[in-house]
Amino acid sequence: MLAYTGKRLVSLVPILIVVAVVVFFVMHLTPGDPAAVMLGTEASQADIAQLRHQLGLDEPVLAQFVDWLGGVARGDLGTSIFMKMPVSQAIAEHVGPTLSLSILAQLVAAVLALPLGILAAKKRGTATDQMVMGVSLLGISLPSFLLGLFLMLVFAVELRWFPVSGYKPLADGFLEHLRYLVLPALALGSMQAALIARMTRASMLEVLNQGYIEIARAKGLREISVVFKHALRNAFIPIVTVVGQSFALLIGGATVTETVFNIPGLGQLIVNAVERRDYEVIQGVVLVIAALYVVLNLIVDLLYGLIDPRIRHKR
Amino acid sequence: MTIGGMTDLSGTDGVRGEEASRKELLRIEGLVTRFHTARGTVRAVDGVSFSIGSGEILGVVGESGCGKSVTSRSIMRLYDENKAAGHEGKVLLKGRNLLELSKSEMRNVRGNEIAMIFQDTLSSLNPVYTIGNQIAEAVRRRGGAGKKEARRRAVDLLGAVGIPDPERRFEEYPHQLSGGMRQRVMIAMALACEPSLLIADEPTTALDVTIQSQILQLIGSLQERYGMSIMLITHDLGVVAEVCTRVVVMYLGQIIEDTDVRTLFERPLHPYTHGLLRSMPKADRAREGKLESIPGVVPSLHAVPRGCRFAGRCEYADSKCLEEMPSLTAAGEGHQVRCWHYDRIGREWGNGA
């Protein structure tokens, strides 16, 4: 298990190199010039050229790439042209809200979805099942920004239970932190909840038809232990897969929700960076998100082994 | 679930000529199991009545789809969670009608009185728990045993079913064992309930021939040792000949013949039973002769024939057979058959037909 984990961690490196190459060249080959953006429309050609030279943007793209990658290898993601601070510091400042939001959204999703999915599978074909499936279809179809605006209107503007928007770091107290995150987490988590509920139901339905479920009942076990001990753990592999993937998507995709609720997360950082052609920041954020994605996948893979001894023994 | 009275008594109208010493453990009267499907309601088990004596090994024989497995699952009430299923009739275990028990009473019957093993040992054992865990679970379900005690008992049971090095095997997962070993584990798990009735649904079908006879021997010896009754579901008459004392032959949800094993092989009365016997491979039968098979296919449960259900495939069928369903009739000491022409058929079989 340990050796496997080590091997997987090493295999992270080539993936990240590929991501680095792609993000660097996509950024540098698309039109737009940070020097021009920085100096505004009034600037003369000479001024722009001078700034380009200062920033090293007039060097050959390949030389810039090697320079940047060398820095990345040493853990230096470069410096933001606009924010005048190291990219790693900018990311560190913005990653907290995004992680908090994603974790809370995923928690909301899992807490809602698992019981509902199991219930729907147990009550297959009944009104309960149809209702769960109907609501989950709605959850998948509804864009999170729309749901976000709706939640904001009802629970913040009308009922005033929660703040309309903004963010308070954990340092301001856990409850205060939570209060600001509830609505965005609901908006962001609802689609994941719908996906997870559907996957849970499908997976449970398959497992509930297995012989060992019949045997578990034939042993005289309570239906509760049939479902939660014998069925759920077997149904978990596809569920964990969806949870892992959607979590990775959450981190990358919280941008819209962060914008709606004005949360200073990675999403806001990258949107601003793209608008300003802040190359180093964009590259750094994308690289960090890619790394998170790969690590999450690794965690999911390791969980497979924990859940299912057959996978564990194959390694 | 509807638990009504006996709506179909066709199975009980025969004289039951059992010897007085035979003590009944399980008696099924007019059992019907219905399933509501998109294409209408089907009766997978349609008025089945039979009994199992204490310490008896009853063979239940028939082609796939004849209702033998559904009968066994109905006895265990394994369709309780299936909203589309319903029962009628009585399943009397030691005089108690299982179909009228509450769910928790039924759980106690399952954990203590009736145990079950299946054909497919790989899917019958939970892949994510050790076999020891699964056996100990059954031991603890029976009650009275702590964790340590349950483990000790589970290891004993693994030894009792002939698994070498049970201490080590306790920690293994189903996928680490061979099919034969897994069936032994299943049997150990069933024994953990100390059941008075073991239902074995095609326990040897998926196994190699050599392993098959080992498992059958094991089942036979355990029956002697623990004195339980066994309901052995199979489509293999060879298995029946090897271990059973009595046999029930099923066709399309009904019993068509019910007798002791000796009579079944010496003087079978139903043409379907004849077909089954003839389609058994035999070493002493001339090699040139093709292996016989019963012509035609089993009708669908959605289109059950009006008269005798076997009439469409039967060489003896006449107009009466097509119109009227024969009832299960006593044809001798402890021998019942569902056929209009059993008299004639019996005579012809005796003459070497």
UniProtKB/TrEMBL annotation, chain A:
Q: Keywords for this entry?
A: Cell membrane, Membrane, Transmembrane, Transmembrane helix, Transport
Q: Which GO terms describe its molecular function?
A: dipeptide transmembrane transporter activity
Q: Would you tell me the protein name for this molecule?
A: ABC transporter permease
Q: Tell me which residues make up the ABC transmembrane type-1 domain.
A: 95-304
Protein localization? Cell membrane
Q: Which organism is it from?
A: Cohnella xylanilytica
Transmembrane feature ranges: 9-29, 103-121, 133-157, 177-197, 235-261, 281-307
- Family matches, as InterPro entries: BPD_transp_1_N, MetI-like, MetI-like_sf
How is it placed in the membrane, per its record?
Multi-pass membrane protein
Similarity annotation: Belongs to the binding-protein-dependent transport system permease family.
* CDD domains found in the cross-reference section: TM_PBP2 (cd06261)
Its Gene Ontology cellular component terms are: plasma membrane
